[in-house]
Amino acid sequence: MLELRLVQGGLLKKVLESIKDLVNDANFDCSATGFSLQAMDSSQVAVVALLLRPEGFERYWCDRNISMGMNLNNMAKMLKCAGNDDIITLKAEDGSDTVTFMFESPTQDKIADFEMKLMDINSERLGFPEADYHAIVRMPSSEFARICKDLSSIGNTVVISVTKEGVRFSTRGDIGTANVVCRQNTAVDKPEEATIIEMNEPVSLTFGLRYMNSLTKATPLSNTVTLSLSSGLPAVVEYRIAEMGYIRFYLAPKIEE
Amino acid sequence: LQTQLRLEAFYTFN
């Protein structure tokens, strides 16, 4: 049996909104490590990895490891029926082919339950070896989203280059070119407004803006985003979910033929 | 010409 009570129910709504366009179906796994998901998009270019640790739940009960296959669009439809301030509880009985989402208003004057059919999904998990990244950039997530959106009106791909100068986002399209450079900036009022660049080696990688724009849907989950980049390796784009875990996207680069 | 790489080129399935 499984019962997970999340006081910040709005967080689960945001998680679904951030991944439902990238991935159709996924297994949610529940274990002592936490409530997690790993799923690849149908073109096998991006993987999303989510972890919500048990400490973040008011009640985290699963007496054995459970994997629940869900259609993410259907799950998002159900979660849209929850208020942003609602407490969300997930419940599943052993051997059941359904999961129940219970929504409680903060004042407890409205309680709703929605039962969703589970599905069998054969998914293999990817192993991500530990990598030493050439550069790690931490910046405000809204700034990163803005840059990806702006550049996608000019071109289809973004070149992300980290040098001593800073981190450069470049694109090229039929109408012209665009370059945005963000320099390290730690002289800010709030730590989440800082841009911090750790560079071991200069690195330059090209990615499809369609994917970058898709993963910036996770922006409401975190004030900051971390880009981990190494030549010839997928980028890791991480949004930390305060005190609970993270949502990470692994995105394969494009190469010049 | 740019080619989009797939994640399978980098990672192994468990």
Can I get a quick summary?
The complex is a heterodimer of chains A (257) and B (14). Chain A has four helices and 20 strands.
Strand and helix layout:
The complex is a heterodimer of chains A (257) and B (14).
Chain A: E1 2-6, H1 9-19, E2 25-31, E3 34-40, E4 46-52, E5 59-62, E6 66-71, H2 72-79, E7 87-92, E8 98-104, E9 111-117, E10 126-127, E11 135-140, H3 141-152, E12 157-163, E13 166-173, E14 176-182, E15 196-199, E16 203-208, H4 209-215, E17 224-229, E18 235-241, E19 245-251, E20 254-256
Helix pairs in contact in A: 1-2, 3-4
Chain B: E1 2-4, E2 12-13
Radius of gyration of chain B, whole Å: 10 Å
Strand content bin of chain A: over 45%
- The chain-level mean pLDDT of chain B equals 85
Low-confidence stretches of chain B: none
Q: If helices are DSSP runs of H or I spanning 4 or more residues, what is the number of helices of chain B?
A: 0
Judged by helices, strands and strand pairing, the structural class of chain A is mainly beta
How would a crystallographer describe the biggest sheet of chain A?
Answer: 9 strands, antiparallel
Can you count the beta strands of chain A?
20
Query: What is the N-to-C succession of helices and strands of chain B?
Result: EE
Amino-to-carboxy terminus distance of chain B: 32 Å
Number of strands of chain B: 2
Strand percent estimate of chain B: 35-45%
Helix/strand/pairing category of chain B: mainly beta
Order of helices and strands of chain A: EHEEEEEHEEEEEHEEEEEHEEEE
Ends apart, CA distance between termini of chain A: 52 Å
Largest interface: A-B, 24 and 14 residues
